[in-house]
Amino acid sequence: MQNHPVYTDNDPQNELSTLNLGPTHPATHGVFQNVLQLDGERIVSGVSTIGYIHRAFEKIAEHRPFYQITPLTDRLNYCSSPINNMGWHMTVEKLLGIETPKRVDYLRIIIMELARISDHLICNSVLAVDTGAATGFFYVMEYREAIYEIYEEICGSRLTTNIGRIGGFERNFNSIAFAKLRKFLKEYPVVLKEFENLTKRNRIFIDRTKDVAAVTAEDAINYSWSGPILRATGVDYDVRAMNPYCSYEDFDFEVPVGENGDVYSRYLVRQEEMWQSLRLIEQALVKLEKEPTDIFHADVPDFYLPPKEDVYNNMEALIYHFKIVMGEIPTPNTEVYHSVEGGNGELGFYLVNDGGRSPYRLHFRRPSFINYQMYAPMSRGMLLSDAIINMSSLNVIAGELDA
Amino acid sequence: MGKLTNEDLLKKVSEKYNDQVTLLGEPFGLLTLETGRDQIIDILTWLKKDPSLQFIYLTDLTAIHYPELPKPIGVIYHLHSLVNNVRVRIKVFLEDADVHIPTASNIWNGANWMERETYDLFGVIFDGHPDLRRILNVDDMTAFPMRKEFPLEDPNRVDKKDYFFGR
Amino acid sequence: MSDIQLVDAPAGVEGAGFFATSIDKAIGIARSYSLWPLPFATSCCGIEFMATMSPHYDLARFGAERLSFSPRQADLLMVMGTISKKMGPVLRQVYLQMAEPRWVMAVGACASSGGIFDTYSVLQGIDEVIPVDVYVPGCPPRPEAIIDGFIQIQKLVQSETLRRRNEPQYQKLLASYGIQ
Fold it and tell me: Could you tell me which residues come within 8 angstroms of residue A62 by beta carbon, excluding any fewer than 6 positions away?
């Protein structure tokens, strides 16, 4: 697939029309623009313009201490913020050489897989809405509310969670959180099955999505695709399986792989990943029963903010709090790259540290940004309605696109 | 599909390129090499095409700015060999007056937007890039915002009173 | 006694088979319970808006059933999310295309004042480019807060005069933004 810029002089008789798709989309997708040249319904060429929500995260991160960067990472892929938070904390733990106890790893896996379910639910139901099937969206949003309630029990907020600390969590998961989690695990599989019944073998849905925007594995790897869309082309690259982090190697899960990379395969891969996430959460709950129930963070007083009761009553905790917030504790003067499997692919954090309170340079390897660059070359020759479905199946989140 | 260790990889690279590539270290198990801008395309192509290495996946392409060094701007490539499950990091440092480097978008198509982002934020010019223009910032911006001398906040704000911000 | 609450009738003269009130109030009530919002969702607040539209919180029961994505057909511009300097002219164009009567709601900290992003590329509040009626703070605001903002807009709509566009202070406000 060639990667050449658009606006070739291919229209001597002025027969092609130009369509401006964006940046104000129907609310679901985000702010990015595509200017398309159309020959009737068929797209001849297209140019993508992004940057409409560039918030300069990497520049801000150079002026903030490690704890204040966690709210920034929330706003990358905001449909699954806990994965971004955990990924950032794991990067800092790798830098500082902190080893988290097993219970913290299992709790982190529960939160990350819930976030993955939340992200894939939005993508698949919005894909169905774009083909015209709006019922599925309204039905599953109720269960995203259930996931939001679980986040609220643990960290207090619904969407941009800012969950966790360096070394673990800020508070233990209480019994209400576990009760809500078990209720979710009982009710949600029924709902997921019903959503599948609506769309998976629906003749209209299959006609709209099968063999639309098929991508070969060579092209996908050449464009550095990752995540469910890469796995839909047949490449089984999942960061959880290849470079396991956070005790994923103790768990038993499968990595679903598709065949020809069309929109229907991407939908199926995401559905199957949601079933595998449910499996992972159930296994984590079983493993948690064997661990002592009062550990929720690693024993690193140098970097773990002490709880407020101790800060007000205990001199040592007060001193540690002061040192952590003012940045008096030296950090290694080196660089680290750590990646996690986000909802859209490999989310990487490249942290270059100079020993001070804030990073010297922090770069986010954002999967939506890298996945989206293939959109314009890929939509050459497609019908306009197929290009819209293609865009929703890529699951481009605007916050991660522009950072 | 064998396991390729960092020592094997370093040995292979030194055999082929001996003094053109220097070893910077292995922070956290990731082999980090430094090379010059004349050899970088050769090295990247060889790393991708060599059948025992097969670094077919370009994970990331970014830059960094150290203003006090003689060669302040560094372009950093992260590669990943999916078959051997090995990653490598390659750095190329450039002088301030001559911030040119050949493009990697002929090797991997995915480098296209990564290089545009690096140009937009740091001002690194990639020779041979098909469409090098700004991608994240407004098109008529003249400065390169990620360089250390550029301020974070907008200097033209009139409504932010320094008195309330402790300045 | 059922617990369904009906809308209070406005002040007026009632008799056998007729009800007389001022046109302002009658039209104000009709408008406020049939607003057509334009969701200008850019980032995280947009996802909270999706949660507000979904059955759990259900903005549609306040009259906002039909979302319009075309500004020509919308009454209320809900700006949800960060607006960067690249997006500012686009937002202004969307506002200019809306026909009177129009109201603007800034949802979230980023739309109200720039939020946590005090950087070179983010517009520090959309009231630098368009006039705003209601600000809903929060990062992101809870769906209940978005509904509260919507109810404030409804109160504004009910209490406004019929032809706001002709009033001198409104004309002055638009002139200060450079809008004719």
Answer: A358, A359, A360, A361, A362, B152
The class level of CATH for A65-402 reads mainly alpha
Domain with residue C158: its CATH number is 3.40.50.12280
The residues spanned by each domain of chain A are 65-402
Q: Residue written as tokens 């006609």?
A: A207
Per the structure, the count of domains in chain C is 1
Q: Does residue C3 belong to any structural domain of this protein?
A: no
Residue C83 resides in a domain: yes
pLDDT digits (tens, 9 = 90+) for A289-307: 998 888 888 889 889 999 8
pLDDT at A4: 40
**Chain B touched by A7 (CB under 8 Å):** no
Q: Report the alpha-carbon distance of residue A56 to residue A221 in Å, rounded.
A: 28
Q: Do B152 and C85 touch (CB under 8 A)?
A: no
Domains and their CATH numbers in chain B? 6-147 (3.30.460.80)
Closest to C119 (Cβ–Cβ): which among B138, B153, B159?
Answer: B153
Predicted-complex ipTM score: 0.92
Question: Are the C-beta atoms of A399 and C117 separated by less than 8 Å?
Answer: no
C69 token code pair: 């994505």
Does position B122 have pLDDT exceeding 60, yes or no?
yes
Closest residue, chain A, to B48 (C-alpha): A222
C-alpha closest to that of A395 among A369, A363, A359, A362: A369
Per-residue pLDDT tens over the stretch A329-388: 889 999 999 999 999 999 999 999 988 889 999 999 999 999 999 998 998 889 988 988
* Closest chain B CA to residue A32: B136
Residue segments in chain A with a per-residue pLDDT below the cut of 50: 1-5, 27
Any domain includes C96: yes
Which residues of chain B does C85 touch, with a Cβ-Cβ cutoff of 8 Å? Answer: 138
Two structure tokens written together for B146: 């990620």
The pLDDT of residue C24 = 85
- CB contact (8 A) between residue A402 and residue B136: yes
| Eight-class DSSP state of A360 | S
Whether B138 sits inside 8 A of C86 (CB atoms) is yes
The rounded distance, in Å, linking the Cα atoms of B120 and B141 is 9
- Whether residue C8 is contained in a domain is answered as no
Taking only residues 76 to 95 of chain C, the set having a beta carbon closer than 8 angstroms to any beta carbon of chain B reads 85-86
Residue B1 has pLDDT above 50, yes or no: no
Neighbouring chains to B with at least 3 Cβ pairs closer than 8 Å: A, C
